[in-house]
Design goal:
The chain has 167 residues and is mainly beta. It has three helices and ten strands; from the N terminus they run E-H-E-E-H-E-E-H-E-E-E-E-E. 12% of the residues lie in helices and 31% in strands. Strands 3-2-1-9-10 form a five-stranded mixed beta sheet, with no helix packed on it.
Length: 167
């Protein structure tokens, strides 16, 4: 479990499926724009290479590996994590298989979490079920067809809220 002094009310940037080997202009623009005020960034896998995480200097970045990551990235990153932010627990995992039923599969991997952040489908999603916020920021690297690059923001306050944004 990732513990730290992560205060309630902080903004958390969420990104997934960047599919890059190094920082890109779009990631730098994200870091200098919408993620400028966030205190932490969660990357839900398929970054491809860990160098992508260097796009966010000065930020606490927590990542998991995905199915398209290099062998080095898979060795250096866990498949899942739980992050504590104040009284909340956030599960972080990439996901696997087809999009149908992915939230049910991922939910079985976590106990006692308030939010599950995942990726893999390249489809943004924000849905609450059984008191758990399931949050997929979509794909920042390549969407499905003409889908624009998407990312998210989580705000843990009285509950955890999330919003999907597009570049």
């Amino acid at each position: 479990m990732e513990k730290g002094k992560f205060p309630v009310g902080m903004k958390i940037g969420v990104i997934s499926d960047t599919h890059l080997i190094r920082p890109s202009e779009d990631l730098v623009a994200l870091a200098e724009g919408p993620f400028r005020e966030v205190e932490m960034i969660l990357h839900a896998g398929d970054l491809t290479e860990q160098a992508v995480l260097e796009s966010f200097p000065g930020k606490k970045v927590i990542a998991v590996c995905g199915n398209m990551d290099s062998a080095a990235a898979r060795q250096g990153l866990p498949a899942r994590r739980v992050i504590e932010v104040g009284p909340f627990k956030i599960g972080l995992m990439h996901g696997w298989g087809g999009p149908q039923g992915i939230e049910e599969r991922i939910a079985r991997e976590f106990n006692g979490v308030d939010c599950i952040v995942y990726g893999h489908t390249h489809r943004p999603s924000r849905e609450e079920r059984n008191g758990i916020l399931f949050f997929n920021p979509g794909s920042f690297g390549r969407g499905l067809g003409t889908t624009p690059k998407s990312f998210g923001l989580l705000t843990p306050a009285y509950s955890i809220t999330g919003e999907i944004l597009y570049l």
